[in-house]
Design a protein that fits this description.
single chain, mainly alpha, 3 domains, coiled coil, phosphatidylinositol 3-kinase regulator activity, UV_resistance/autophagy_Atg14, protein-membrane adaptor activity
């Protein structure tokens, strides 16, 4: 198939109708030549061939302007060339303007930086002025302080000298106080030793040997044991509890077990006998009351010499003032034991495991043998021993009654007028004991020893009380 072209526009247009080939005419049946257009893929009978399409000799089927594709393509290329030329001309004319704008922007940026630098410089100047003012103020303050520091240094030197002087004075006073405490302790020990040696002698009675124990089956021992049997309230009671182990104060002895029930038996016996008790000095009632009375007197003197306030007022006249009920006797003994234990604690007795809440004279003997006896030390109480205080606690009933003998005037034993009017040269601690070694001790087996020694103790203690007042 060959396409004819002419110089006119109508001739250049692609034909809308084409002649069919002989193959179509020669077809036996009725056929319709319908092919799809390669451009629009339509089923119209009008179409363009491939060669026309390749050459661009076609137009749009619905175009209002009849221009071929080749013409439009040439026109597009020409427009691009013209556009490029126009762009080059515009760039040549716009380039100086762009450079001018760039220079203006740089100039504006420099102006802005200059303004910022001016502001920073002004701020720095203001800060420098303030810093200079502060520096001047600091220099002025430092100058004033340097002037004051000289005065303070002089004061510091004076204060250091004063402190050193006071330290030295305190050290001297501490040494003096320590010396006085040691001297006081020695004086206390000396006087208590003299008191214990010549007036209130306390010692442990050694139990009989095994040979003597074997002799207990003899007739003499049987008679002696029978002499200590008492018929009370319809039964026989053994009243001698002083053989198991005793502690002696002057002449009377107290049992180490702390069992003072023979005194109560003696009181009960005297009441059953119609108020006619056994008044011999060797009976258990007199022995126990005398021992407790002397122990109470010794404890009162020791508390006075050691300057220790006891928990209970130690009024020893209750033990020698007459017969006591069992309740009052028990509570007075409990007070005595508590006072002795407190005095042991105040003097730092270390044998806590050996202290017995009921053994009166044993605790007192431990107190007299304590290495720190006479010293002024803090009071330390053993917690384990505190639990055993329940055994020697004074009942609430007797606490409510108060000290039933506080108001009595019989706290001191009556002494002879000749002994009371004896001339005493001085009432100091040294002068009071200077004549003690010259006293004559008559022995412990005499029945009148208790009264003589008690009178001597009363006279000595009256001197102590007069000095205290």
């Amino acid at each position: 198939m060959v396409m004819e072209s002419s110089g006119t526009e109508s001739e250049n247009l692609a034909p809308t109708e084409f002649l069919c080939t002989s193959s179509i005419e020669n077809s036996t049946g009725l056929t319709v030549a319908v092919e799809r257009c390669p451009l629009c893929d339509g089923t119209k009978r009008k179409y363009y061939c491939k060669s026309c399409v390749k050459q661009g000799l076609f137009i749009h089927s619905k175009a209002t302007v009849c221009q071929r594709y080749t013409e439009l393509l040439h026109k597009l290329d020409f427009s691009k060339i013209e556009r490029d030329k126009t762009l080059e001309k515009c760039q040549e004319k716009v380039e100086p303007l762009l450079q001018t704008d760039i220079r203006l922007q740089e100039i504006n940026e420099c102006h802005r930086k200059i303004d910022l630098l001016k502001i920073a410089l002004q701020t720095a100047k203001e800060k420098m002025v303030k810093d200079r003012q502060q520096l001047e103020n600091m220099r002025r303050i430092n100058a004033n302080k340097s002037v004051k520091s000289k005065t303070h240094k002089e004061k510091k030197i004076l204060i250091q000298k004063f402190i050193k002087q006071k330290y030295q004075e305190i050290s001297d006073k501490n040494e003096n106080i320590k010396f006085q405490i040691d001297t006081l302790a020695d004086i206390r020990l000396f006087h208590i030793g003299v008191l214990q040696k010549y007036i209130f002698s306390v010692e442990e009675v050694i139990p009989p040997s095994a040979l003597e124990a074997n002799m207990a089956v003899s007739t003499v021992s049987a008679i002696r044991d029978a002499s200590h049997m008492t018929y009370i309230s319809g039964k026989w009671a053994y009243t001698n509890s002083l053989e198991d182990g005793n502690y002696r104060i002057i002449v009377p002895t107290l049992p180490s077990s702390g069992d003072y029930s023979p005194y109560n038996l003696w009181v009960a016996t005297s009441r059953e006998n119609g108020g006619n008790p056994d008044n011999s000095l060797q009976n258990p009632g007199h022995t126990i009351s005398g021992g407790l009375s002397l122990t109470s007197q010794l404890l009162a003197v020791l508390s006075y010499i050691l300057d220790v306030n006891l928990p209970w007022k130690q009024n020893y006249s209750v033990f020698c003032g007459g017969e006591m009920t069992e309740k009052h006797f028990k509570n007075d003994v409990a007070r005595l034991n508590q006072n002795i234990l407190y005095l042991c604690f105040s003097q730092g007795v270390q044998e806590y495991h050996q202290l017995d809440t009921k053994n009166t004279l044993q605790n007192l003997l431990y107190l007299l043998q304590c290495p720190t006896f006479g010293r002024s030390i803090p009071v330390l109480i053993n917690e384990e021993l505190l639990h055993s205080f329940e055994e020697v606690t004074v009942t609430e009933e007797c606490k409510s009654l108060g000290n039933h003998d506080d108001d009595q005037d019989g706290e001191w034993e009556q002494v002879n007028e000749d002994l009371a009017d004896m001339e005493i040269p001085s009432r100091t601690f040294y002068s009071m004991t200077s004549d003690v070694p010259s006293m004559m001790y008559t022995g412990r087996q005499s029945e009148s020893a208790i009264g003589i020694v008690s009178s001597a103790a009363a006279s000595v203690f009256s001197i102590f009380k007069s000095n205290k007042r």
